[in-house]
Design goal:
single chain; alpha+beta; six-stranded mixed sheet; 47% strand; globular
């Protein structure tokens, strides 16, 4: 195996890792139009059991509709990426803080994704966000059956 053959997957992983990091940067800094830089035109974004958003225009619109008064800060970690030629899959865990209508929420979730290499570089084709818990700080996360994340109006 040549050095180029060994380095290529590492470069792919870093480019894909940047997509995941940029996603959260765009959320945290309220730049929904920039999702066009990381998703394919036909991408699918699925929020747990609550909704599925299809196509980049719908993804941009949904993220642009988050009320300005909502504080969102997301922190991503444990991003595990598997590359297979021009396709890849990955998962990562999310720790997030939200503030909406005077309520402080703490969220834990898992992102599962698929990617493909395009002429513009790697892009996300599918994202599944599985919420582990989303609760007010005062309530805590000992009982994840009360899912406050589903109460956010994303449309």
């Amino acid at each position: 195996m040549t050095i180029e053959d060994r380095i290529r997957p590492l470069e792919d992983i870093e480019e894909i890792r940047r997509l995941r990091n940029m996603y959260h940067y765009f959320i945290n800094e309220r730049q929904p139009d920039r999702f066009r830089e990381i998703y394919t035109d036909d991408a699918v974004l699925q929020f747990d059991k609550h909704m599925t958003i299809e196509g980049i225009d719908a993804i941009v619109k949904a993220n642009g509709n988050i009320p300005e008064r909502t504080l969102i800060k997301q922190f991503i970690h444990n991003h595990q990426i598997d590359v297979d030629g021009d396709e890849a899959s990955a998962f990562a865990y999310l720790d997030a803080r939200y503030g909406q209508d005077g309520q402080s929420l703490i969220v834990a979730a898992r992102y599962d994704e698929k990617y493909k290499r395009t002429p513009q570089g790697w892009r996300i084709t599918w994202t599944y966000i599985g919420v582990i818990f989303s609760v007010p700080v005062q309530v805590g996360w000992a009982d994840p059956s009360d899912d406050y994340f589903s109460k956010i109006d994303w449309q």
